[in-house]
Design a protein that fits this description.
The structure holds two protein chains of two kinds.
Chain A (H helix, E strand, L loop, with lengths): L3 E5 L11 H4 L7 E5 L3 H6 L10 E4 L6 H4 L10 E6 L10 E6 L5 H13 L3 E6 L6 H17 L5 H12 L5 H8 L1 H15 L8 H12 L6
Parallel strand pairs in A: 1-2, 2-3, 3-4, 5-6
Antiparallel strand pairs in A: 4-5
Chain B lengths: L5 E5 L3 H12 L3 E5 L3 H20 L8 H7 E4 L10 E4 L5 H14 L5 E4 L6 H6 L7 E6 L8 E6 L5 H13 L3 E5 L7 H17 L5 H12 L5 H8 L1 H15 L8 H8 L14 E2 L2 E2 L3
Parallel strand pairs in B: 1-2, 1-4, 2-3, 4-5, 5-6, 7-8
Antiparallel strand pairs in B: 6-7, 9-10
The structure holds nicotinamide-adenine-dinucleotide (NAD).
Chain lengths: ~220, ~290
């Protein structure tokens, strides 16, 4: 497995706190893991990008191509994107979504995957699309749950109970959204709606309300 | 308030066999009716082996077994359901078949007998409309396998009386099941959300967002769901997913419920899921490859 160094530029949503993954980094590691909300800029100002086993760039909701450029690039690249999945205010999960581009070399992808998996993280590889895997898949589901709650399909408790009993979900999605901040669902799904122009991503009424309240009364709780 | 003693189950297929186990296990006299004798004998075998395993696993007292098996009675005569306090229907998912059946049951059963349908996608109000007793008609949607899954989605049709709904609800609780109240709208709760969500996952594969096993891995790790959507689809069967999509889309016209083109191609290629040895994954003696 290759070694890696960590470069941080601004607060990181994936690694907000010390973690085994950050501790295992070495100053002259063969790969670079760039974290923090400004790591895209830091990547652009790197003096040298070639020659590393891989460069892994932490992403927000944006595509990796925003940082690397695309321009029908066909030359091999050692860059991958990543984000640790985290719902709203919840702690980050074990999941690292690892983003490759058409020109990412298999060796860079494999090296990045190996270093993330060497600690307790799980990786899932995807191509460079808005929302990657999890947000892309669950946001329409969450919107339709919120909409059908409004329409009186069943109570919130019964909707959650049905999904937990019927599908073995460890917790009800509505309770989970409430606990982790429904306004964050608004933010993510609004960005995906803009990027994909599909109605299923349009923020549900309840999420709009939660965002408006959070923006106007930041400290009030329901 | 549960006055129900004798339960009729119509249709001894996948669902009916499970529902009959639930009723007999809960101590009800259970009459199982199917027009196919082989369905009845297979349901009987399934019931015996399931209950024996329950005894072996300590989930059922051994001395209860003979009584339960004696109270499970099969019949190929619809008239034998004449002494049932409730009849739960689990025949083919076809409005006409169900309505014909209920109009015959309406002749065979006394006025106080409650009727329930286990339909997944047909409107309870519509089936009840042909039953001759729409006020004494409820939806009771069990999950597969009914003998293991506690959830029952219960819905009232437009003309169901609230008293009769409560009577059915109390009966459901006395089965040891967990009822949830929902509206008589397509797919109730579970299928309404699950069918489009599964389609969305198929579309991610179709559009090259990620491979099936990466999607499943991501969902399980991020949300703690016991199964990824594509793994689940392999169990449901791609042919069944297509039928579910056609029923749901035909009722709601919601784009996410429409059957993805990949499903049709997979069916054409014989990749129906686990039962065919190949779906999104390949199976060899139920061993999962590529996961
Ligand atoms: N399979 C599932 O996962 C599932 C889950 C929940 C609800 N349901 C619903 O349960 C119902 C049954 O589904 P299934 O999967 O058990 O089907 P199935 O094909 O396994 O069984 C249907 C049985 O009904 C019998 N039958 C058909 N018409 C009859 C009639 N007129 N009189 C007597 N018997 C008749 C058939 O011989 C067959 O044995 C459907 O409405 C379906 O939508 C299915």
């Amino acid at each position: 497995m290759s070694t890696y160094r960590v470069l941080q530029a601004g607060p990181s949503r994936s690694f907000p706190e010390p973690s085994p993954f950050l501790s295992a980094a070495t100053p002259h590691g063969a790969g670079i893991v760039m974290i923090g909300e400004r790591c895209g800029e830091a990547y652009c100002s790197l003096e040298k990008r070639a020659g590393f086993a891989f460069i892994a760039l932490e992403l927000g909701e944006e595509c990796l191509g925003v940082h690397t450029g695309e321009a029908l690039a066909t030359e091999p690249s050692n860059v991958v994107g990543f984000a640790r999945f985290r719902l709203g205010n919840a702690q980050p999960t074990k999941l690292i979504e690892l983003v490759r581009q058409p020109n990412t070399t298999p060796s860079a992808l494999a090296a990045a995957k190996a270093v993330f998996e060497a600690t307790d993280l799980v990786t899932a590889v995807c191509n460079d699309f808005p929302g990657r895997i999890v947000n892309r898949l669950i946001r329409p589901f969450y919107n339709s749950l919120l909409r059908r709650l409004d329409e009186g399909l069943a109570s919130a408790q019964d909707l959650d109970k049905t999904l937990c009993l019927g599908l073995g979900y460890p917790q009800g999605p509505l309770a989970l959204l409430e606990r982790t901040g429904l306004e964050h669902h608004y933010d993510v799904t609004a960005e995906l709606h803009a990027a994909l122009a599909q109605e299923a991503y349009a923020p549900a009424r309840r999420a709009q309300v939660a965002r408006q309240r959070a923006s106007t009364q930041p400290r009030s709780s329901p | 308030m549960n006055d129900i003693r004798t339960v009729g189950v119509v249709g001894a297929g996948t669902m009916g066999a499970g529902i009959a186990i639930v009723a007999a296990r809960a101590g009800f006299k259970t009459r199982v009716y199917d027009s196919r004798p082989d369905a009845l004998s297979s349901a009987r075998r399934q019931t015996e082996s399931f209950l024996r395993r329950s005894v072996e696993r300590g989930k059922l007292a051994a001395d209860k077994l003979p009584g339960i098996l004696a109270s499970w009675i099969d019949t190929s005569q619809l008239e034998d359901l004449g002494d049932c306090d409730i009849v739960i229907e689990a025949v083919f998912e076809d409005l006409k078949v169900k309505q014909d059946l209920f109009s015959r049951l309406n002749e065979a059963c006394p006025a106080m007998t409650l009727f329930a349908s286990n339909t997944s996608t047909i409107s309870i109000t519509e089936i009840a409309g042909g039953s001759g007793r729409p006020d004494r008609f409820v939806g009771m949607h069990f999950c597969l396998p009914a003998q293991l899954m506690k959830l029952v989605e219960m819905s009232a049709g437009l003309n169901t009386s609230e008293d009769m709904f409560r009577r059915a609800w109390a009966f459901c609780e006395s089965l040891g099941q967990q009822p949830v109240r929902t509206q008589d709208t397509p797919g109730f709760i579970l299928n309404y959300f699950l069918i489009p969500y599964n389609n969305d996952a198929i579309r991610l594969v179709e559009q090259g967002v990620a491979e099936a096993e990466e999607i499943d891995k991501a969902i399980k790790a991020a949300l703690g769901y016991p199964m990824g959507p594509l793994q689940l689809l392999d169990l449901i069967g791609l042919d069944t997913q297509r039928l579910l999509c056609e029923a749901m889309y035909g009722l709601t016209y919601e784009p996410r419920a429409a059957c993805p083109a990949l499903v049709k191609r997979m069916i054409a290629a014989g990749r129906l899921g686990k039962k065919a040895g190949r779906g999104f994954y390949s199976y060899d003696d139920s061993k999962l490859f590529g996961a």
